[in-house]
Amino acid sequence: MSFQKKLKAAAVGNNSLLCVGLDPVPERLPDAVMGKDDPVLYFNKKLIDATADLVCAYKPNFAFYGALGEIGWSTLKATVEHIPSHIPVLVDAKVGDIGSTAERYAHMFFGELAADALTVNPYMGGDAVAPFLEYSGGAVEAAERCVFLVCLTSNPGADDFEKLAIDGCPLYRRVAEKALEWNAVAPCGLVVGATQGKAIRGLRELAPELPFLLPGVGTQGGDLESAVRQGQFASGGGLLVNASRGVIYASDDSDFETAARRAAEALRAAINRFRSPPPG
Amino acid sequence: MSFQKKLKAAAVGNNSLLCVGLDPVPERLPDAVMGKDDPVLYFNKKLIDATADLVCAYKPNFAFYGALGEIGWSTLKATVEHIPSHIPVLVDAKVGDIGSTAERYAHMFFGELAADALTVNPYMGGDAVAPFLEYSGGAVEAAERCVFLVCLTSNPGADDFEKLAIDGCPLYRRVAEKALEWNAVAPCGLVVGATQGKAIRGLRELAPELPFLLPGVGTQGGDLESAVRQGQFASGGGLLVNASRGVIYASDDSDFETAARRAAEALRAAINRFRSPPPG
What we know:
Number of strands of chain A: 10
Oligomer: homodimer
Shape of chain A: globular
């Protein structure tokens, strides 16, 4: 099944465009998990169990596992394996390097980790992206995965390079144009910050059929209504609205699971208010 | 001691601007190491022992360790620990993400791994770079590390975005200009592909005192003479000329150590021919 079909099935099944970012920081874990063998894994499993019927995808960010040192890889792998197989897993790593190195990252995330989708930084251009589109060693075939190109991000630094104009056209749109070309090789998506206002509409017009990962709602303060209305497909959907800290740290007490569930329910409902056609 | 001083001391001590990339692929290891407990680590240690008096730095690329799965982190950490303490370690990971995530990558590479320097992808702008400049949790202080910004790379895809002109100034020069600003916060360097001809001279004129990591000699076919002559400081040095596959896979037989040493000696000598003032 293609990534987009898997995503749509999860979105319809759970009536949700919410993607939960599994980005645990050891210092922020609730006391209730601290005695466990692998506290981060225990925390993640409880969060997944509490929210798996409320999301369209999960997005673990590799940095949070790499920073754990030696235990990081097994924690990430066991986390991914705990996610129900019908929910897509988008690994956020924003990698990008020359071909022989990019092939190793593709092997890491698509081969060893069996991710459904991966974020890739486009700065180094087409031959640095190609190995992610073409990797053939994993359990999931290339046509069933999705490569999300970092396009227009939610942070203030997006002004530094992403929005610079090349003959009147901002760099991030050049990235989106290339992503449309690369999408002919294997399925692509775009990372589009929820804080980016009407630029989201422009990108949706340019790339009407590429899925968008929308980070930046919640902690980063993006305007949810505008992001959802402008970012969704004409037919609805096509969006992964990501929230991390607002959900996983909804409570730092022993009620962290129910608090995460409540936060996820509230966000799902908030997103659904702005979907058209309305879900259901 | 600042990164630049440490680099200079190693370069003078070993009469070398050669940086060896430790990028092992399990399938390419010599038969002679295959029976070992951790073949990649054994291979790396032998390579380091064979070349530590010939290099100014080592550059392990994280992708090659991440791709090993569960053993990757301990292999990378033990590799870094095996490098003599007077030789700088530049970890190549080309990471970049919003602040809270970038802080985790900084913790991973500067905190847990105690790298002297790290490559960072600038696409997401200043606040995505800042956590690498400001990280304070490691054994090495910020002022003693170096953040190498991916600027102009050696691959054909450099044409896709890096060379696009913004008001007549290519994007990669905008990156270099920002790196000069960031260098006021903590020491920065630039990744400049050895294949990039006279653009290297232009970047050296723009940033006369930032160290350049020059990948792309050897397998990638960069012009060594032009890269060294145009990339070095006016006073000489300031360059890490990287070679990976040409050194570490100089032989796939039991003589891999002596072959790597010979390849490193030849490259060091080839680089030294183009240094001015001449070394020694």
